[in-house]
Amino acid sequence: QQQQQSGNSSIFTGIAMTVLLRCLPSLLVLLEQSINVASLTWEALSSTADNTGQSEPIPTPTHKGWYPVPLDHFGDNGLQPANFSLKVLRYSTFKRCGGPIFFYAGNEGPIESFYENTGLPFSWAKEFGADVVFLEHRYYGSSLPFGSDTYNGTSGNLKFLRVEQALADYALFMRDYNQVCTQTGKKSKVISFGGSYGGILAAFLRMRYPTLFHMAIAASAPIPEAVAMQVAPSSFYKAITDNARDADKGCPGAVQQAFTKLQKLFQGGKQDDLDFVQKKFNLCKPLKSEEWSHFMQYARNAWTEMAMCDYPYPSSFLAPLPAWPVKAACKAVMSASEDEDYVDGLAKAVAMPYASPGSASCLDMYELFISCADQTGCGKGNDATAWDYQMCADMNIIVSSNNHTDMFPARKWALDDLASYCSKTYKVLPRPQDMQSRFGVLDYLPASSSAVDGDVIGAAYSNIVFSNGLLDPWHPGGYLEDLSETVKAILIPLGAHHLDLRAANKDDPECVIKARLQEKALMQKWLKLEPVNRGQKSGEFVV
């Protein structure tokens, strides 16, 4: 009987080994998928953070790694590469078992840029024992699906650059990264952070993958404008003009007067007048009368950058700028002679974001501003190409100046203009209502302006904070009122573009300090998070 049992045992062992060997490739794939973050080779990075103006320092990442993702999450992947990798930056100095994960949804640029300009997660990390993770967006920075061939002069390789693909990247990463804590038997609570396009992504992560992302802080996220095109195109430049008026009530009129004078000089076509403009604006090349449109956009874009970065301290996020740059620009304008129609003052203001501090070098308006699908500016290089393509094939943003509600010369830019540009450049057409159906939400407006009964987002979603600075020209395109008790709007009267996400600074106005405390209080209330030291105060704000 013992011999029979031994024989049976050998047979069963043989069968088990056969099954194991046959299943081993699949098991290895599953194992690799479940531990691919843990098996990364991490390396330390040096920080080049922007700590101008005595902001809290941004800590050096403790780890850098790469996370493999499929090229297409939703196709059959027939002949496509199996995967490519996204860059990951991690700061785990204060990480503790059971502590939250603060996840930054990378947006349109290298992840280092957002890491170095986003201080809020780090300022909360020690208090809550949090792990801080920044993941780079596909097609941006170093996370290129086809390597050096990603941008090969055609748009064929760009078709996998979609919001849904990026969200699926982030969801897959978090599924694998957020492991069960052995001490508590639970996974970490995850809060997604993001500013601007990253804010849109942070909110969508909570909306689309609520079991993986338990809360979102979406700063300066213009969802009604960028996703549904339900905001007046004139609102963007009107907001810049309102900011200038708050800085100096005479500023918008003076800027408008200067632009009117300049337009007449261009339309006159006299070379002496055009040479005068070239000299005043320190431009590198002689001007031609037909260059008025580009010159105007170049000058207008300077005000866009200053308004977006109208921070209370010097910064270099989009350009090297002084504290309160819109006030500084208006001061330059108003100090010029009215008899010369403030042209000299406008020239000094326009140079602020473009000229290198202390440099007398001339300015190349074609290098410094490149016209693209996004009228607020794309920049240049691969990241600019990616964003330009997204503005054609993915999201569509229409902004225009009209010289009535704003201080800038009128320039038509409507859906037909965007369609013409996108067709010519990428052989794609914008689909302005497409994202609504792609995301399954057909109404993005608050109840007060909704075309359907009730507030769809407030009723369907929870644990989202939409913050907006009222100095930011993007704020009219965002949510400016609460949608529900758990979808909250926080307004920052003296805040510019996602100021609340930036590192705390001694010159921060009280309103942004209050906003950060409110965001933290909501996080603690909704997710039942406690500081590591329970006796530690986490801010005086009650929700």
> What would you call the shape?
globular
Rg, alpha carbons? 26 Å
Portion of residues in helices?
Answer: 25-40%
Overall pLDDT confidence: 87
End-to-end C-alpha gap: 74 Å
Number of helices: 18
Indicate the proportion of strand residues: 5-15%
Work out the number of β strands: 8
Largest sheet: 8 strands, mixed
Order of helices and strands: HEEEHHEHEHEHHHHHHHHHHHHEEH
Low-confidence stretches: 1-39, 47-52, 450-454, 537-543
Structural class: alpha/beta
Secondary structure: elements and pairs:
Elements (H helix, E strand, L loop, with lengths): L1 H34 L27 E7 L14 E8 L9 E5 L5 H5 L4 H9 L2 E5 L27 H15 L12 E6 L1 H12 L6 E5 L3 H4 L8 H13 L3 H18 L2 H10 L11 H17 L16 H10 L8 H9 L13 H4 L13 H12 L21 H12 L7 H6 L16 H5 L3 E6 L17 E6 L17 H18 L16
Parallel strand pairs: 3-4, 3-5, 5-6, 6-7, 7-8
Antiparallel strand pairs: 1-2, 2-4
Helix pairs in contact: 4-5, 8-11, 8-12, 10-12, 11-12
Entry keywords:
alpha/beta; disordered C terminus; 9% strand; 8-stranded mixed beta sheet
What does this structure look like?
The termini are far apart. With 543 residues, this protein is an alpha/beta fold. Strands 1-2-4-3-5-6-7-8 form an eight-stranded mixed beta sheet, with helices on both faces. It is built from 18 helices and eight strands.
